[in-house]
Write a structure and sequence with these properties.
Strand order of the largest sheet: 6-7-8-3-9-10
Keywords: ATP-binding, Nucleotide-binding, Transport
CATH architecture of the domain at 3-93 and 161-244: 3-Layer(aba) Sandwich
Family: Belongs to the ABC transporter superfamily.
GO molecular function, one term: ATP binding
Organism: Labedella populi
Structural class: alpha/beta
Number of strands: 10
Largest sheet: 6 strands, mixed
CATH class of the domain at 3-93 and 161-244: Alpha Beta
Protein name: ABC transporter ATP-binding protein
Bound molecules: adenosine-5'-triphosphate
Shape: globular
Strand content: 25-35%
Order of helices and strands: EEEHEEHEHHHEHEHEEHH
């Protein structure tokens, strides 16, 4: 299996406070790695580092076998297109002053996609995120949370990335909508072979979507491996605590 994204011994401190320590993982093409832990466990710090929005104090991150922090200029711009973020709040991904169509077309222009293909590509993206094509005329404020998150996903996959970093991407949604959006991610993965780094505090969400899991507690990886193995037979007390507090996806 091809490793599309990996981290080795990553550490990040903020003013002497260690938020993430010795973190390592491998994410394979077409698979989902869940990163789970309570608030403050270092999940978003890890997400920001692999998006190259934050510099680690130690360790390396490789995208497609290339050191992400060694890249400059054009190769860096190419790498940034290969890894895209789906944030918790779609308002951070969508421009409120543009229609859905313009939000997507903005991405196409950035990717220098030929103008003649824009309408077909917009329709294709709306189909992929299970929205009807007339949403192209909608404004972000007219969308429900679930619809807005689907458009944010469409925007993120517009350039056919290899990796999506989903940082609490369903946490703000109602439980029933959560299940639908998780299924959309799973369908996309089957269609596109995109790999997901899925960050969530909610073990039910991680259990639903992840092939592999990494459990973080105060910046330390307490457990990692196949989701069914780790959750089926947790070896660490912290994982057992998370399991005991777990909700159920799709059930309010
Ligand atoms: N820019 C920063 N400056 C100082 N401390 C920070 C900064 N960003 C995060 N931290 C601290 O680092 C720790 C990890 O934060 P991080 O946001 O990565 O955790 P998290 O697991 O994503 O939590 P949440 O789910 O609440 O977002 C926390 O204690 C947080 O207060």
């Amino acid at each position: 299996m091809t490793v599309v994204l990996s981290a080795h011994g990553v550490r990040k401190t903020y003013s002497g406070f260690t938020a993430l320590d010795d973190c390592s993982f491998e994410l394979h093409a077409g698979r989902t790695l869940g990163v789970v832990g309570e608030s403050g466990s270092g999940k978003s710090t890890l997400g920001r580092i692999v998006m190259r929005l934050l510099q680690p104090d130690a360790g390396t991150v490789e995208l497609g076998g290339t050191d992400l922090f060694g890249l400059r200029a054009t190769p860096l711009r190419t790498a940034r297109r290969r890894i895209q973020l789906v944030p918790q709040d779609p308002r951070h991904a969508l421009n409120p002053a543009m229609t859905v169509g313009d939000n997507l077309r903005f991405q196409f222009a950035a990717q220098r996609l030929p103008r003649a293909t824009w309408t077909a590509r917009t329709n294709e993206l709306l189909d992929q995120v299970a929205l009807t094509r007339d949403y192209v005329h909608a404004w972000p404020y007219e969308l429900s949370g679930g619809q807005a998150q689907r458009i944010a996903i469409a925007r993120a996959i517009a350039g056919r990335p290899d990796v999506l970093v989903c940082d609490e991407a369903v946490s703000a949604l109602d439980k029933s909508v959560q299940a639908q959006v998780l299924n959309t991610f799973a369908d996309l993965q089957k269609e596109m072979g995109v790999a997901l780094l899925f960050i969530s505090h909610d073990l039910a969400v991680i259990d639903h979507i992840s092939d592999d899991v990494l459990v973080l507690n105060r910046g330390i990886t307490v457990e990692s491996g196949r989701t069914r193995d780790v959750l089926g037979d947790p070896q660490d007390a912290y994982t057992r605590e998370l399991l005991a507090a777990r909700s159920v996806v799709g059930v309010p």
